[in-house]
Write a structure and sequence with these properties.
By secondary structure, this protein is an alpha+beta fold. The protein is built from 25 helices and 12 strands. The chain has helices at about 5-10, 15-35, 40-50, 55-65, 75-85, 90-115, 115-130, 130-135, 140-165, 170-185, 185-200, 210-220, 225-235, 250-260, 265-275, 280-310, 325-330, 340-360, 365-370, 370-385, 400-405, 420-430, 445-455, 480-485, 510; strands spanning about 390-395, 435-440, 455-460, 470, 490-495, 500-510, 520-530, 535-545, 545-555, 565-570, 585-595, 600-610. The strands form 3 sheets. A 4-stranded mixed beta sheet has the order 1-2-4-3, covered by helices on one side. A 4-stranded antiparallel beta sheet has the order 5-12-7-10. α2 runs parallel beside α7, α16 (about 280-310) runs antiparallel to α17 and α22 packs parallel to α23. The two termini are about 50 Å apart.
Length: about 625
């Protein structure tokens, strides 16, 4: 017969919230350490390349003010750290991983002061196993550092408010951590400002003056950076060159990302919270919950309005600083009374579900190994080894210094040629190399232009951000047969027409493919009947209901009379359709457009092909 007292004693630690917190911290630490050895990302390499200045003053001028849109605090920290440890992936990431691990006991300590031990386990568990916090803890970028500093400031503020002890040390530490937030990232500074303003409702009247003096101290500590900040905010304004403005679905996409794009994880999270929720806890904790919710939501609202009205800045990454405030707002609805087995069991189910979806649904650690810049250098080394350095030209949409971090012997074609189609054609025509390695090029139209010069596709390596493609000029037994890759091929014979429009294909995407990772390519063969007249437009649209999602066109070029030609128009479905369930509601329309009605181009045939594409390009944030 089982000895129940021994059995209970063996698992008695589950009745200790502190023990559960440390177990969560160990799990979270293991998940973070497991990802810190992967290839460096584009943003990390950008930061490392901006460390290569002999003096700190030069680094601040050219590496921060003129070369970045973030404050200089993290860049200064990395520059000093690199003087001691070098710039290997492990060395530059180590401080950020340690700060990421420290956020778990920090958020527990804050939740414990606010609501009690058991309620504090909720934000701790989410911080431990969410891909959101795990991924940014492994990056040598400002996000995890800012999260750490904001929690440090909040913890000191919590001690002052709850204990009503505003000692000089605490006030000085609060000012220091607030200033660190401002030096780390501007959304972190915004969150710190909102937190400091919200605290005014909880600071007693007799402590108001020293608290305001502490806030003033934080402002004074940031003054040396104000010149750089003003330049970045009013001259650079944002990062709209590559970042698009958010859509109204941004909030929903954010929630899907937080639940690992898994309906199972979302359902488990909702059920777990429902099991721990207590209305009496809300009645008791509503002032803290309301303040925390406001600090958690306002950065999203402000960022959205600024991104739509001025310049895009809103990304999931910049909301990580306000993320713990959302968790603390939810934690206020959990009972502070000891619940032992119940809380531990519910937390355990949630943790197991999130870790499972991290590995299975998100394939997180596989994704980390598919960063494209290191893979680009490796692919170049392999191609040079197989065909010879003189026979392989490299065209990367990557700054040369980032590739040089892995291989300084490569001399790629300057990536600026990708911004000028005519110059690109001239460079490729002049190239004597029979092989061309391409990387960082997401635009399928650009790849089609490259294939006019290098028509044979020899190898494709799927990566995050971009595929790496090796092209050749001459037929080869190693060539990839594109027709065999095409999942769908539609042929249409065409004839001359006098109207303005001529339909070629109108169908639901679901009738063509069951996956959103696909490239649709329409190739129009035509005959030029005269040299004078209007060109013909090949148009491809994606439409959902009455809303046009995308509109792309390719125009027939002016050629010799009575000559044949072909134009190709490709689009990547996954850049427009973000969920599989949207395929059946999205229609593909391909048609000819003759705006003036007097075109001199006679369409002969149109071939529509659908190719599978890599699910990894947008896998950092989107569903795979």
């Amino acid at each position: 017969m089982r000895n129940n007292s021994t059995y209970v004693g063996a698992f008695g630690w589950m009745k200790s919230p502190a023990a559960v917190m440390w177990l969560l911290t160990v799990v979270g630490a293991a998940l973070r350490v497991g990802g810190m050895f992967g290839p460096l990302t584009h943003d990390e390499l950008s930061a490392i390349c901006r460390l290569r200045f002999d003096t700190l003053a030069d680094m601040l001028t050219y590496g921060v003010k003129l070369g970045d849109t973030h404050p200089g605090g993290v860049q200064v920290m990395m520059w000093l750290w690199a003087q001691l440890t070098g710039t290997s992936a492990f060395a530059v990431r180590l401080p950020f991983v340690l700060m990421g691990i420290a956020t778990m006991p920090l958020v527990y300590a804050i939740g414990r002061c606010w609501y009690g031990d058991w309620a504090a386990l909720l934000p701790t568990a989410v911080m431990a196993v969410s891909q959101y916090t795990i991924y940014y803890s492994d990056l040598a970028r400002p996000y995890c550092a800012g999260l750490f500093f904001i929690l440090c400031a909040l913890y000191v503020l919590t001690l002052m408010v709850t204990e009503e002890r505003y000692t000089f040390l605490r006030l000085a530490l609060f000012a220091l951590f607030e200033a660190c937030c401002a030096y780390t990232q501007y959304f972190c500074a915004l969150t710190a400002l909102l937190m400091a303003c919200g605290a005014l409702f909880f600071v007693g009247r007799r402590h108001l003056l020293p608290y305001l003096a502490s806030c003033l101290g934080a402002v004074l500590l940031f003054l040396p950076h104000i010149g750089i900040t003003l330049y970045q905010l009013f001259e650079l304004k944002g990062i709209g060159g590559w970042l698009g403005a958010p859509t109204p679905a941004f909030g929903l996409e954010y929630l899907r990302y937080l639940t690992h794009h898994s309906w199972i994880a979302a359902a488990v999270a909702v059920v777990a919270y429902a099991l721990l929720f207590r209305p009496e806890a809300v009645r008791r904790n509503w002032p803290l919950m309301a303040a925390s919710l406001a600090v958690g939501v306002l950065p999203l609202v402000i960022g959205y309005v600024y991104s739509v009205g001025v310049n895009p800045v809103l990304q999931f990454s910049v909301l990580i600083f306000s993320f713990p405030f959302l968790l603390l707002a939810l934690a206020g609805g959990v009972s502070a009374r000891p619940q032992g087995w119940r809380t531990a069991a519910v937390t355990g189910v949630y943790v197991v579900t999130m870790v499972t979806t991290l590995f299975v649904t998100r394939r997180h650690y596989t994704m980390l190994q598919k960063e494209y810049i290191e893979a680009t250098a490796t692919a170049a080394q392999e191609a040079v080894g197989q065909y010879g350095a003189d026979n392989v030209a490299c065209l990367f949409n990557i700054r040369a210094d980032k590739v040089a971090y892995y291989d300084s012997t490569l001399h790629p074609i300057p990536y600026e040629v990708l911004n000028d189609a005519g110059r690109l054609d001239s460079v490729l025509d002049a190239s004597a190399s029979p092989y061309l390695l391409c990387s960082g090029i997401q635009d399928p139209a650009m790849l089609c232009r490259i294939q006019r010069h290098y028509p044979v596709l020899l190898h494709v390596r799927p990566c995050v951000v971009s595929e790496i493609c090796l092209f050749g000029r001459d037929p080869s037994p190693e060539a990839i047969d594109l027709d065999s890759l095409s999942a769908v091929t539609v042929e249409r014979r065409l004839a001359s027409f006098d109207g303005e429009f001529r339909d070629i294909l109108d169908t639901s995407l679901a009738d063509l493919t069951g996956r959103r990772f696909a490239c649709i390519e329409a190739a129009l063969q035509f005959r030029q009947t005269d040299t004078a007249g209007e060109p013909l437009h090949l148009v491809m649209e994606l439409v959902r209901g009455s809303r046009r999602l995308s509109w792309n066109e390719e125009v027939t070029p002016a050629t010799l009379a009575d000559s044949l030609g072909t134009i190709v128009l490709p689009i990547r479905v996954e850049t427009i359709v973000k969920h599989r369930c949207q395929l059946r509601h999205t229609r593909l329309k391909i048609y000819l457009w003759n705006p003036g009605g007097n075109t001199v181009t006679q369409p002969l045939s149109c071939r529509v092909r659908l190719f599978p594409t890599s699910p990894w390009i947008y896998s950092v944030l989107e569903e795979i």
